[in-house]
Write a structure and sequence with these properties.
single chain, alpha/beta, 6-stranded mixed β-sheet, 13 helices
């Protein structure tokens, strides 16, 4: 039996899932982080692999790793980190982002202080930079510990580094920067990088020739886990916030709404994130109340309330206004009616978000798969289906590690009609 391993490095811990060729889960384990550091990540990677039963490890044919988007670290010629990694939400590179605005096209994904290119430019001003040879994302570096070839990335992790996944190359303005020699080689997610190194294979009892494949980001891995693969399919994550992703034949980018598209083979994955979501519900109700009150709601009926549920002022998508005010009044005496109004308000925001993606050129929405804690709420699901007018159901798999395991198993063929060109320096 051939098995495949996906490892997800998220914001609070790492998870490994091993599957067989048919996608059945054979093993899974999770390790929380004590801190976010390269040493912690390396220890978690090795501990998770060691936890896999020996017979599953011996049958592994491929491994892929995902990490948080734009989490980056600087490494020397021996692939050793030179300083602590800059995490996905690190925004210290404000001045560098401003300077990039004079170089990069308007609205580009690198024009944020948290982009990996802004981070690279900030790192270039640090004393350690003199010994730097590689700028690597979290997933890149962890994979390189297994295959032994630093400086290889994928076009999902490299989007915020400035790589253009349409022509599959770095643009000229980026190649001219003094930091350009540190840019990684970019492959398609799922592309073969090479076998696990001999030392690592012997250490963990892996089969000779077990491949390491180019990885992805944690959010894209979660999308891959959902199974969505046709234009017009959306995936909504109902967590503390509301995150939408819509598979499209056309690339959609709109920086003013925080919208940009990741390439999935010949298709594009356009997405945006609203500040509404489960955090609003948690501000008013506990789990038991949500279940009890939800059972009293008829999702076929209108609540008569017109809410825009936010926990504080400020919205980013489908409205871009840092001063946008929540609307949570009038509040009825009946808590079930109040919850009904909150759920309807969130469903209208979701529908408006998908409409905006379509107005900007994405394919019409045909169905929605749901991930996150809210996927388990049948009342919310029925409300959303009524308001959006398309079938809505929970995704069978939602763990990013499962999506990365699928990437390990199927390689580039998982990416919805993979293009002919697969790599660029």
């Amino acid at each position: 039996m051939h098995t495949f391993l996906g490892i997800d490095f998220g914001t609070s811990g790492a998870r490994a899932i091993a599957i067989d060729g048919g996608g059945a889960i054979l093993f899974e384990a999770r390790l929380p982080y004590t801190e976010q550091s390269a040493a912690t990540w390396r220890a978690a990677l090795f501990e998770l692999i060691a936890k896999i039963p020996a017979n599953v490890r011996r049958s592994l044919r491929a491994i892929a790793i995902d990490g948080t988007s734009a989490t980056a670290l600087l490494c020397d010629a021996n692939n050793q980190p030179l300083c602590p990694p800059l995490l996905y939400n690190d925004a210290r590179a404000q001045a560098e982002a401003i300077s990039l605005a004079r170089i990069a096209p308007s609205g580009h994904a690198v024009l944020s202080a948290s982009s990996s290119l802004a981070k690279l430019r900030w790192l270039s001003k640090q004393p350690e930079f003199l010994r730097a040879r590689f700028l690597q994302h979290q997933a890149d570096w962890l994979a390189s510990l297994l295959h032994g070839k630093p400086g290889i990335s994928d076009y999902h992790n490299s989007l915020k580094l400035g790589f253009d996944p349409a022509p599959m190359c770095y643009p000229d303005w980026l190649r001219r920067l003094p930091e350009a020699p540190l840019l990684p080689q970019v492959l398609a997610p799922g592309a073969d990088i090479g076998p696990v190194g001999t030392e690592m294979a012997e250490r963990f009892g892996l089969a000779a020739g077990c491949l390491v494949r180019a990885g992805t980001t944690d959010s894209i891995a979660a999308f891959l886990a959902s199974g969505a693969n046709r234009p017009g399919q959306g995936v909504t994550s109902l967590g503390s916030t509301l995150v939408l992703k819509l598979l499209s034949q056309k690339r959609v980018d709109a920086a003013q709404y925080g919208i940009y598209s990741h390439r999935l083979g010949k298709l594009w994955l356009a997405g945006g994130a609203s500040n509404t979501g489960g955090s609003v519900l948690r501000a008013f109700f506990g789990d038991a109340q949500l279940e009890e009150l939800g059972a009293r709601i008829n999702p076929a009926n209108e609540s008569g309330l017109d809410y825009y549920p936010l926990v504080q002022p400020g919205e980013r998508f489908p409205v871009n206004d840092p001063d946008f005010l929540p609307c949570l009044t009038p509040r009825p005496r009946d808590d079930a009616l109040f919850l009904h109004g909150l759920l309807e308000g969130m469903a209208r925001i979701e529908a408006r978000g998908y409409r905006l993606l379509q107005e900007l050129g994405a394919n019409p929405l045909v169905s929605v798969l749901t991930a996150g804690g809210g996927a388990k709420n049948p009342t919310w699901t029925a409300l959303r289906a009524r308001i959006m007018g398309v079938p809505v159901q929970a995704a069978r798999f939602t763990e990013a590690a499962y999506g990365t395991a699928l990437l390990a198993a199927r390689g580039k063929s998982l990416l919805c009609c993979e293009p002919a060109h697969e790599e660029s320096n």
